[in-house]
């Protein structure tokens, strides 16, 4: 049950990251800055932070799945 919840959280977070990137691009275009900067150069650190946070969620999920698989093996014995 917890794995399903973590997967849903990761999917929601992925969607939020995509929406954030689209919002940043929209704002840069609206302010006329899009052509001056590469779209993500000025927000690169923020995006890297979001990607690392999402990677942490994925790692946590994978670790929990492996633990449950091991526990399942022990319980079957």
Describe the structure concisely.
81% of the residues lie in helices and 0% in strands. With 77 residues, the chain is mainly alpha-helical.
Strand content: under 5%
What order do the helices and strands follow? HH
The biggest sheet, with number of strands, parallel, antiparallel or mixed sense and barrel status, is: none
Helix and strand composition category: mainly alpha
By DSSP, the count of extended strands is 0
Helix content, binned percent? over 70%
> What's the alpha carbon Rg, rounded to whole Å?
18 Å
Overall mean confidence score, pLDDT = 75
Cα distance, first to last residue? 23 Å
Number of domains: 1
Low-confidence stretches: none
The gross shape turns out to be rod-shaped
Report the total helices: 2
